[in-house]
Amino acid sequence: MPKRALSEHRPYLLASLIAAVSYYFVANDPIGGIWLMGWKAAGVGFLALYAAHRGKGFDAWLIAAVMAFGAMGDALLEVSFLIGGGLFAIGHLIAIWLYLRHRRAATAGSQKSAGLALLIFTPILAALLTYPLPNWELAAGYSFLVGAMAAAAWTSNFPRYRVGAGAVLFVVSDLLIFGREAGRIPNEVAEWLIWPLYYGGQFLIATGVVQTLRHPELRAGKA
């Protein structure tokens, strides 16, 4: 069975890594177009396939849907921030549902405080970064969903230093995007950090959730 799992499922992770790492080096291609949008979407798209094929039960389909909406958002951000952001928002709502289905039986005070901080300060930081640009309210509202997703992940019973940490990396990558668009963060710095943080976060989330669904002993409190 281990050999079968390796041959049938891990290629999705390998394909995801190859697509994501290679995209990092072609992201600024001036030609761009559909081919670059597809390349960008492939990294997280393969994570969706990994979750669908490797996961177990209804929750595996939920995390696969989260990754699928993320992949579509990756592609369509190149066309419209509003459309791409809307797709990500749907994915965040599904992720929140998933994490709330797997709440910890007991949450320490420090864990509750961290979750509350993610929920409150993520939209505040987004607003401070984007005000007074047009649509700064949309950025803050979207970031509330991102913060809620990260808070739910951090306080879920999925491994905190995989799924929770991955969600925090997602928060940081989004805040860097807003800072770049507002001119508050140098473009060179943002371009260097955003994609690795975003993809690394998605990779940790997808693999952390899937492996925990397959091996419940990895749930928080034991890992």
UniProtKB/TrEMBL annotation:
What is the name attached to this protein's record?
Answer: Uncharacterized membrane protein YhhN
Tell me where it mainly resides: membrane
Transmembrane as UniProt keyword: yes
Which family does the record claim for this protein? Answer: Belongs to the TMEM86 family.
Mind telling me which GO cellular component terms the entry cites? membrane
* GO molecular-function terms, A-Z: hydrolase activity
- A Pfam family reported for this protein in Swiss-Prot or TrEMBL: YhhN
Q: What does the UniProt entry say about where the protein is found?
A: Membrane
